[in-house]
Amino acid sequence: MADAVRARLAELRRDLHRHPEPGWCEFRTTARLVEELRAIGVDELAVGADAYDPADRMAVPSDDRLDEWYERALDSGTDPDLLEPLRGGTTGCVAVLDRGEGPTVGLRVDIDGLFIEESDDAAHDPAAEGFRSETGETMHACGHDTHMTWGLATLEAVKDSDFSGRLVVFFQPAEEVSGGGAPMAKSEYAAGIDYFFAVHVGLDHPTGEVVAGIEKPLAMCHIDAEIEGTTAHAGKAPEAGANAIHALGTAIESVYGIPRHSDGMTRVNVGRVEGGTASNVIADEVEAVAEARGETTELMEYAKSELRRRFEKAAELHDCEATVDVVSESPRADSDPELVEAVADAAEGVRGVDRVVPTADFGASEDATFLMERVQRDGGLACYSIVGTDHPTSHHTATFDVDERSLETGVEVLTRSILSVAGVESAPELAGENR
Amino acid sequence: MADAVRARLAELRRDLHRHPEPGWCEFRTTARLVEELRAIGVDELAVGADAYDPADRMAVPSDDRLDEWYERALDSGTDPDLLEPLRGGTTGCVAVLDRGEGPTVGLRVDIDGLFIEESDDAAHDPAAEGFRSETGETMHACGHDTHMTWGLATLEAVKDSDFSGRLVVFFQPAEEVSGGGAPMAKSEYAAGIDYFFAVHVGLDHPTGEVVAGIEKPLAMCHIDAEIEGTTAHAGKAPEAGANAIHALGTAIESVYGIPRHSDGMTRVNVGRVEGGTASNVIADEVEAVAEARGETTELMEYAKSELRRRFEKAAELHDCEATVDVVSESPRADSDPELVEAVADAAEGVRGVDRVVPTADFGASEDATFLMERVQRDGGLACYSIVGTDHPTSHHTATFDVDERSLETGVEVLTRSILSVAGVESAPELAGENR
Amino acid sequence: MADAVRARLAELRRDLHRHPEPGWCEFRTTARLVEELRAIGVDELAVGADAYDPADRMAVPSDDRLDEWYERALDSGTDPDLLEPLRGGTTGCVAVLDRGEGPTVGLRVDIDGLFIEESDDAAHDPAAEGFRSETGETMHACGHDTHMTWGLATLEAVKDSDFSGRLVVFFQPAEEVSGGGAPMAKSEYAAGIDYFFAVHVGLDHPTGEVVAGIEKPLAMCHIDAEIEGTTAHAGKAPEAGANAIHALGTAIESVYGIPRHSDGMTRVNVGRVEGGTASNVIADEVEAVAEARGETTELMEYAKSELRRRFEKAAELHDCEATVDVVSESPRADSDPELVEAVADAAEGVRGVDRVVPTADFGASEDATFLMERVQRDGGLACYSIVGTDHPTSHHTATFDVDERSLETGVEVLTRSILSVAGVESAPELAGENR
Amino acid sequence: MADAVRARLAELRRDLHRHPEPGWCEFRTTARLVEELRAIGVDELAVGADAYDPADRMAVPSDDRLDEWYERALDSGTDPDLLEPLRGGTTGCVAVLDRGEGPTVGLRVDIDGLFIEESDDAAHDPAAEGFRSETGETMHACGHDTHMTWGLATLEAVKDSDFSGRLVVFFQPAEEVSGGGAPMAKSEYAAGIDYFFAVHVGLDHPTGEVVAGIEKPLAMCHIDAEIEGTTAHAGKAPEAGANAIHALGTAIESVYGIPRHSDGMTRVNVGRVEGGTASNVIADEVEAVAEARGETTELMEYAKSELRRRFEKAAELHDCEATVDVVSESPRADSDPELVEAVADAAEGVRGVDRVVPTADFGASEDATFLMERVQRDGGLACYSIVGTDHPTSHHTATFDVDERSLETGVEVLTRSILSVAGVESAPELAGENR
């Protein structure tokens, strides 16, 4: 890869890094992607509601938050015409290359940031190099800036190759809240895919290491629970209340006591609670945010239904009422061995890759599994790969960063994998004359 | 009482009603009181830190809140010279009449408002008559505007009478959070009081009814509890966390299970909880606001120490640590029968009073009990009276209001009671020639 | 009272003390009472099912236990003809004196013992004097042996007096389990009573003290709860069970968290639990024994219904089912002041009585309240008195004992009270010439 | 195998089946084994305390139970001289063949019964055929009668073969309570074993199926927990008690809430609870029986230490004290692949074996793992096999039974496996001329 290309990758990633936006609020981000895709030149470009059915979105934030980030994008000088179709949170896009006969290949990258205030420590490269987040409250602390860069550059590389067939690249919003995988998976663009690739940077794998295909991503669901009771004066009439905080206490105890399942691993957590007003008032409303996971989709469903039941019954026990909403969820889906092998083979030849791990347990959850499951159900093959990077601190921390050498590596691994399944030898310009 | 006087009482009360301020933020309120007291002319006027030791204050809010309300007071056009000594939350004042030989008589009224947004319903008199709260978020929803009016007018009436002795009127901040009674009770102004009166409007007693002396106010304490644990990823390493939300659940269950006590009534409540960040994160910090009450100070202490112990042990059970702070508290103190009788006698002769109830259970808590206890410990007599008022809805609701006929009644009951213990016949001008 | 009479009282009490029988198993006890009553000579003697409707009995033990104690009574040489009508647990009797015109007066004494193994310590009088319980497992540890003696001797004394009217003496079974008060109260013998007396020995009042009429016995109910779930192997299929022990844990936590009530005192307790089989088996059945009390019958009903609800809901939360049976209960009933005064007056004149307390709080529960309530509902007056005794250790302990001087005192207080309401001056022979 | 031999196996198994004895009470059983071993003729026979250090025993029952079963054995006509060395619960034995040069091979069978009353249904073969348990309360409901038969017959077959080396057969007591594995594993007889075999019948594998080597037995521990508090009258002084039942409720809730572990599967269960006396008494003592398991010994240790901590802290929360005793435990140990292969090969040639499964997950726990772990630590190989049998109902049920065709199969599989590792071709007489 030419130094110029390499520099462009870094520049693009750094621009995206400076403007992290939360799930379904990726207004400036999507506009930037559209600009890039137009510059590259694709055969089809579906933005927002043209890419998926907005009704399928999960975990959509409040109108207030959507409006606030839309305004921010406008204020930052983004082209209003590019923003208009995204209003109301229909962010993300799908880009398609149609190159004659051949297989349909899918590639998915995610585009949202996190509510983490980025470190301004001089030891933190983005701070030192001047591309720290400009929002003050959000950060690309999981590497989605890198993922987007990969997506664009891979698309361009495939376009410039002898690829024959159809390449569909999903720029998916709202991965962090498991909100965007489902609508993408239900869209027409997910139909008929023969080979599907998803990819993540880092995840504790160092620069130079590639995991060809991960296994056992956990099925997961996010839940919002609300308990409503009846308020009363805690001193004058304690018996007159239906105590929502007391019900919450019972629910918490009960949720963590959901029995282990003999079919495999499950997880439950209540991660945030808030409710009540003052010490002398019996609370009539509390909210809790919880999740359930499982080694399989069935195990997640078991944990989810028990979680719901326990919130409801705990509320009843205190004469309260619980409303449990599933905000978002993602199934389990595993990488197909044939495709894992193809990626492993492709990665072996890439400059900078010094170790290819065939497969590893994922341990966490990912809503790319919606797309993987769709592809597999339709008879295609799917694979979720990791391109390692030296990251100074964990994902989701204020000092997370990627080693930019991974930008080039990722593009090459993905491009070669795509060309490989399409039966094309890797184009020499990709690998560079100096490999 | 002349119509003019009566109109002035209403006008004063309405002005105070328009500007409700929360505990220790009664900046504009105190300034207004000082103006009024200067106009009346008192022999001694101690404001803020001159009235009590600021270190004795309880339940003082954050500097941010103090600053915010101080700015509001400045912005509303209050005289900066009057505000200056109150900066930092040293609100309230004590006014003294020194009129030669005779007993020292104390009178305490409270001055703070509540965080309730006042109704703008046309059926709500303050809204219809144009004296609804102007702050947008606070309200005199407990009648302290009336109490202050009583305090000022009674002071003036006593001044204009043949009263001989010393009258000390406490304009006490932060009653709603049980924060101001203790510093007032520890001050030099609380020393040597022979007869002490405290008073409340309404409390479900109608216009025309007076309760001479209440019994059994509950001893109470407010508590802030914080539980600190260790965060971890709920999916990847559930065993690595020390789950503060789980500990909170155990604490809630446990606190409500504090055994009843054979010596009498106790109360416990957890009234507000908040903590954690997201569904997939094991929470490392939660906060809870709780209270304990008891029919006696000892019973409150029992409930308080159990509450503390259970928060601490529940935290330990989950490998977390709990910090329990007593934000404020108030003891139990009962009205002395001799003084109750004096008030009952005084009230009997007052125009508009059609029913005098000697005594009634209070059922709630009040930090006037600090002053009552101090006076009684020093050998004086104390009494807490209620002057009834028709109030359309309960105290602490957005449509609470008082019947302004109670303004006059309260002033007369208090003035006559004070004069009575000082051995003075009620001055005819108080009762008005047209009674 | 003659020494001979006094000795006979002691002898009778000691014989009863040697043969304590549990509730509804008072076979030998009832037979002995019938023998004594026949010897005294009464106008009517209703035994077992003739005294009340057996269907009204509460807390009847298992057939096995009934049979076992029936056999014991037979084996101890009790007359089989006397035992026959008691078979199946229809114990106790009602004796009536019909002496012409006059009021109907009721007296109730209880007859059952407790499952406590009596001390054989030499310092324990019944052991030293040779009248320790012969059963090995039960004991008159509450003084019902004394109560029966009082009942018989008072009946005899009234018979020998100028009493005119009707005297109904209830020898009530199963007081300790609140099982016998209800059937007695529903019987025809409880009808038309003008004055009703119940009495207890001791209760921390010393020899020489008489409490004329107690107040505030607590309304109470005993409850048996059973939780049924589904068993499963705890290691192989934890999710397959419906865990009755886990449900019990939730129920226990929940029951103690029943809110205090603003109308007054309540109590709840889970006093015994048992269930499950082995550590590796998810329990499918547990039993709990619980109670609820209240300062009033309404408060007890509140606590009882909450207790029931919480057992049921806690079971549901764990997919189990709870069955909650009210085994027995007793209402609150207070002594009528007029009758209290009559007892106080009667007691004042009795030899050995050096202190008459008009009234005292009872603090515990008693199913004599069923009879008191019945009498009061029908327009009569009721009174529950205490005749003090020096008791070395608490009621319900293995070394409980009564001071036998109280035997005579109790008989005189009761006789004089009965004669008093019947308008008869105390007969001189009762008091004895040597008073 | 000759019909006569086959008949003798069935006769032996049925005799053992008639006399099931619980862990450490296998008095008659051990005596019978000793008789058989003497008849076979072994080179070394260590009984009870000669076979292991009695101090290493776990889960030893009370002296009362030991005495009771010792008396039963005496009463059943067992030779007192054989019983004498077993007095006090030193049951079980180790038999050794010393046959010149060659490897040391170990075989372990377990010998205890269960507290299950055997079915007397005519459809239950042992009942129909007259060899139902004669004890009235215990049963060989797990197949240890078969295991012992295998142990004896295999020993005899090896003795009669060309085997060269040392064969050590462990007749281990108290497997059901994980009590006998540890002392056997610590004994001198467990030293220097090159190849170690353990075996189980059935476990849902049908007649004709052999599992060569099981994997993933769960590490496990049994726990006895006792919570001590302070009793008080639940009505008169609820605050005076330290409520052991309330503490139990908190402990139960807490134990089931032990966090899942990311390293693998854990299990916890509270399987039995008992405590308290009566509904009106605050319980001062409860007992619970619990267990913890883990996919690895480390995971079991995690669950065990959390279980202990939570009992202790829950007790503290209620001012009680918990004592947690580990009654017994067993580690995880897996079959060595080389030995699994040897068993699989040996089984392939056995008459009646129609399916050899190389390996299967065990799912449950076994204290043979102590011996396996010892052998493996010392450099030997270990294998735990299953010989299938059609069993009408599950292990540990009153109608469990084995298909006696498995008797012969088991002996042949074990003998061939032992001879195989000793380098001997299977002796033809073992397989029988009519295979």
Tell me what you see in this structure.
Chain A is an alpha/beta fold and 435 residues long. Chain A has two domains: 3-217 and 333-431, Zn peptidases (Aminopeptidase), CATH 3.40.630.10; 219-330, Alpha-Beta Plaits. Chain A has helices at 3-18, 27-40, 63-75, 80-83, 125-128, 144-159, 181-186, 244-256, 297-317, 337-348, 368-377, 405-421, 428-431, and strands at residues 44-47, 93-99, 104-110, 165-172, 195-201, 209-215, 219-228, 232-233, 266-276, 281-282, 285-294, 321-330, 355-361, 381-387. In chain A, the strands form three sheets. The first copy, chain A, has an eight-stranded mixed beta sheet, with helices on both faces. A four-stranded antiparallel beta sheet of chain A has the order 9-11-7-12. A two-stranded antiparallel ribbon of chain A has the order 8-10. Mean pLDDT of chain A is 93; it is low at 427-435. At the A-B interface, strand 7, helix 8, strand 9, strand 10 and strand 11 of A face strand 7, helix 8, strand 9, strand 10 and strand 11 of B.
In short:
The structure is a homotetramer of 435-residue chains. By secondary structure, chain A is of the alpha/beta class.
What labels would you give this structure?
homotetramer, 435 residues, alpha/beta, Aminopeptidase, Alpha-Beta Plaits, 2 domains, 8-stranded mixed beta sheet, 4-stranded antiparallel beta sheet, 13 helices, 14 strands, 34% helix, 23% strand, globular
